[in-house]
Amino acid sequence: MTKKTVLVLGAGSSVEFGLPAGNKLASEIRQRLHPHTSAQPERLIADRTVWASIHADDFAQLQNGRISGPEYDRRFDALKQALETICRGLGLSRSIDDFLYNHGTNQSVVDIGKMAIVSAILDAERYSSIYALETLSATDRLDKHRDTWLYKLFTHLQTGVRRESANEIFSTLQIINFNYDRCVEHFLACAVEDAYSLTRTEAERIVSNLDIVHPYGQVGWLPWQGRKEHTAPFGATISAEELSGLSAQIKTFTEQNHSDSERAQLRAMIREARVVVFLGFGFHKQNMALISPGRPVNSSGPACFATCYGTSASDQAVFKTLINEGLRDPAYSAPVLTELTCDQFIDEYGLLLWGQR
User: Fold this and answer.
1) Stretch 190-210: mean pLDDT
2) Distance (Å, rounded) from C-alpha 74 to C-alpha 70?
3) Which residue, among 184, 52, 56, 181, has the nearest Cα to 117 in the 3D structure?
4) Is the dihedral of CA 212, 140, 349, 14 positive or negative?
5) DSSP secondary structure string, 289-352?
6) Contacts of 221 (CB under 8 A, 6+ apart)
7) In which band, very low, low, confident or very high, does the pLDDT at 19 lie, cut at 50, 70 and 90?
8) Which residues is 275 bridged to in the sheet?
9) Residues 91-96: what's their mean pLDDT?
10) What is the pTM of this model?
11) How far, CA to CA in Å, does 320 sit from each of 186, 243, 314?
């Protein structure tokens, strides 16, 4: 079996496309759930779709007489309390995931938070630099994104792969993507289409062969990913009903309910890898515990690299410990941590890691 390179993607890997990460996403969500200031008493918060999703059912039940006025008032007060909890406390958390973990026993807070995540990420996709790639010429797509890590990675992957073998372009790559967005899938479909002069449908079919796992789910399956339910085009504008369904498909730190088979799949990807590369990854203990198969017996484990842009030396020491404890034996060789951005990392190490097929 061919050993593969596994990319483990964190929020930092999507930043260069305009997606918010960490406290920036938390701030965006806090604004969406902030009390609505216009003269519209029927909408309590700024995000119209989230409000409709969390409130419309109770209001409809009141109108249809299925719940009484006092019951409606009780539910409305509970909703207001959950929103106040988020708006008061979210600004003090490093991320929305951390905040929802802290309030994991409050199901209303978790449900509202997940809806806000989906709404914010879909909007971020729509305002990202890669939203309208299909409408641009191949030249414009190249010029606009040649400095991104995905563009640079693709140039390595496609080297030496003939058009008639294009369906094998991702044969040595696997991705564990902790982000909810679909930037990787969307960008690579456009890249394959341009690189090999294929139809969009042909390119999407090839990208469907890429082994990519979102441990916490994604904000909807892209329409071409072969799923019948919970699909949403990249950067889609959705209804309140769709938002409710999509938010139910994502998980947070709070919902550590991965099945044994899901954990086994993630850990097997790491255990069997030739190289593991962490790009824009925050090294949360919960995430490392989810994917770490434990130190290998009688072998070194995969070679490990990580981008640590903007982190301190003490943080990097913690990252090394987590890698050594969960992925490899440091007696063989230490993981390589670099203070590079994701695209700088591909510049520096791309030929070493992907230059030989």
Assistant:
1) 94
2) 6
3) 181
4) negative
5) HHH---PPSSS---EEEEE-TT--HHHHHHHHHHHHHHT--TTT---EEE---HHHHHHHHHHH
6) 227, 230, 231, 232
7) very high
8) 5, 303
9) 91
10) 0.93
11) 32, 39, 10
Please, how many CA atoms are within 13 Å of residue 89, restricted to the half-sphere of its CB? 16
CATH of 5-19+135-216+258-354, one of 3.40.50, 3.40.1620, 2.20.25, 1.20.1530: 3.40.50
Query: So what's the pLDDT on residue 106?
Result: 93
Which residue is associated with the tokens 């994701």?
342
Question: Which residue, 113, 132, 128, 100, is CA-closest to 28?
Answer: 113
What is d(CA 199, CA 346) in angstroms, rounded to the nearest whole number? 28
Q: Three-state DSSP class for 5?
A: strand
Token look-up 């469907």 returns: 208
DSSP letters for 43-95:
--BS-HHHHHHHHHHHHHHHHTTSS-HHHHHHHHHHHHHHHHHHHHHGGGSSS
Instruction: Give pLDDT, residue 115.
Output: 96
For residues 110 and 158, give the distance between their C-alpha atoms in angstroms, rounded to a whole number: 42
Give the pair of three-digit tokens for residue 157. 């992957």
How many angstroms separate the CA atoms of 202 and 198, rounded? 6
- How does the average pLDDT of the chain come out, rounded? 89
- Close Cβ partners of 194 (under 8 Å, ≥ 6 residues apart): 138, 141, 142
What pLDDT was estimated at residue 298? 64
Domain ranges of the chain: 5-19+135-216+258-354, 23-126
Residue 44 reports pLDDT greater than 70: yes
